[in-house]
Amino acid sequence: MLRSIIAFIVLLLPVAAQAQGNYAIQPGDVLAVEVAEDNQLSRQVLVLPDGRISFPFAGTVRAAGMTTSQVERALSSAMADDFAAPPTVYVSVARINPAEETDGDTINVYLMGEVMAPGLKEVKPGTTLLQALSQAGGFSKFAATKRVQLRRADPRGGREHVYRYNYKALTRGAALPGSVVLREGDVILVPERGLFE
């Protein structure tokens, strides 16, 4: 019995690998990115609604509609100037966008950048920025906590508004200005900390 199960799993592995290789990445997917030359850069990144991902030393790179191997080449090329030789990058799909639509009891918000669990989050209406950051597991050690952004598209004109928050000041008792209750499609971006930040 055990031998049959193992044989079945071994037969499925090439199929799974092929599906991963041919899969066209979509907005809302979460990608696992590993850089062989610098393990500290390895992380999960969210594919934003505009189809791009953000990665240290690479900036923003198009991912939607591409395969994982195409994203690997794009990231390696974008980071090449910061390494002695183009780095070896491995990309896999960690999580496929679970839903395009909400069921009415939740809204979709996106967390990206230097948070512990980036990606699409289904949250209850009325969820605040701080509550969503908490659901994402907090900040990574590379987070620029003084420059947290809430990016919100205007439903009428489509123009994006960017609200900036200083989380470090909040921990010292500062009030949180601006619009903090999240809306459908909001993107919370935590940038990477600068060298002397």
Chain-wise SSE layout:
Elements: H1 2-22, E1 30-35, E2 43-46, E3 52-55, E4 59-62, H2 68-79, E5 89-95, E6 107-113, E7 119-123, H3 129-135, E8 148-153, E9 160-165, H4 167-171, E10 187-190
Parallel strand pairs: 6-10
Antiparallel strand pairs: 1-2, 1-5, 3-4, 6-7, 8-9, 8-10
Write a structural description.
The chain is α+β, with helices and mostly antiparallel strands. It contains 4 helices and 10 strands. It has helices at residues 2-22, 68-79, 129-135, 167-171; strands at residues 30-35, 43-46, 52-55, 59-62, 89-95, 107-113, 119-123, 148-153, 160-165, 187-190. The protein has a 5-stranded mixed beta sheet, covered by helices on one side. Strands 2-1-5 form a 3-stranded antiparallel beta sheet, with helices on one face. Strand 3 (52-55) and strand 4 form a beta hairpin.
Mean pLDDT: 81
What series of H and E elements makes up the topology? HEEEEHEEEHEEHE
Q: Which stretches are poorly predicted, pLDDT < 50 over at least 5 residues?
A: 2-20
Number of helices: 4
Helical/strand content category:
alpha+beta
Query: Describe the biggest sheet?
Result: 5 strands, mixed
Number of strands: 10
Radius of gyration: 19 Å
Helix content: 10-25%
Beta-strand percentage range = 25-35%
Oligomeric status: single chain
Arrangement of strands in the largest sheet: 7-6-10-8-9
Q: Based on CA inertia axes, which overall geometry fits?
A: globular
Q: Span between N and C termini?
A: 58 Å
Key features?
disordered N terminus; alpha+beta; 3-stranded antiparallel beta sheet; 197 residues; single chain
Summarize the entry for a quick read.
The chain has helices spanning 2-22, 68-79, 129-135, 167-171, and strands at residues 30-35, 43-46, 52-55, 59-62, 89-95, 107-113, 119-123, 148-153, 160-165, 187-190. With 197 residues, the protein is an alpha+beta fold. Strand 1 and strand 2 (43-46) form a beta hairpin.
